[in-house]
Amino acid sequence: MSNSVGDAILEIQKCDEIKYVTYHLVNNIGAAMDNPFVRTNYPDSWVSYYLLNNLVASDPVLRWATASKEPFIWSDIVLSKDEKAFIQKAAEFGLGLCGYSIPCSDKIGRKSVLSLNTDMSVDDWAAFISKNSDDLVSLAQDLHVKAVSEAFAEAGDIPHLSPREYECLKWTSLGKSYSEIAIILSLSEHTIRSYLKVARLKLDSVTLAQAVTKAANMGLL
To answer: Which of residues 83 and 153 earns the better pLDDT score?
Structure first.
């Protein structure tokens, strides 16, 4: 997995079928973060227009994603009058209007949305999503963990774990031994021990079990 959510977006964009990628960590559990965590490769001109005109209230994708627990194709959204105007304006900025969004939430209520859009036809896009939906959902779940870690690390509340540290800790939480994790990740057992030691220190824990517990309580696992 890429080193940051921003890097992951650039990797996803390399897929020929996908034109734009947006990742939004929705702040719905209090005041832990005042600023929204959003990563996107949309044109700067659209991002500026969106923010300056406060289009959050008329964004149909964000509305639907906030209310939904399941992935959805944008063509399934029933649009209000204001939302139709939003879509028309997005088209003027050259955005692909055929899209797919994947809501993701953790056990303490933090929610995020991974949205992908394209210039493909509705039928071709539906076929692409049908073929790749499982992988895209798994990607959204991994990005959720990464985004939470990044966002709270920026705020100084949660230590930032590297992708490998997170993976090793995740497998440890599932009961895997050093040797088993080494096989799963195709790394040496010594390397696995090193990643877990660093993760334990970052989490200010004496034992690995304590580190796993702390990470789980923080919503990282």
So the answer is: 83
Pairing of strands 20-26, 37-40: antiparallel
CA-nearest of 218, 220, 164, 213 to 193 is 164
Where does 163-217 sit in CATH, by number?
A: 1.10.10.10
Q: Where are the domains of the chain?
A: 5-154, 163-217
144 strand-pairing partners: none
Q: What is the pTM of this model?
A: 0.68
Contacts of 99 (CB under 8 A, 6+ apart): 61, 73, 74, 115, 116, 117, 118, 125
CATH number for the domain whose boundaries are 5-154: 3.30.450.80
What is the separation, in whole angstroms, between the first and last Cα of the chain?
16
> For 100-120, what is each residue's pLDDT tens digit?
999 998 766 778 999 999 999
Enclosing H/E stretch for 47: helix 44-52
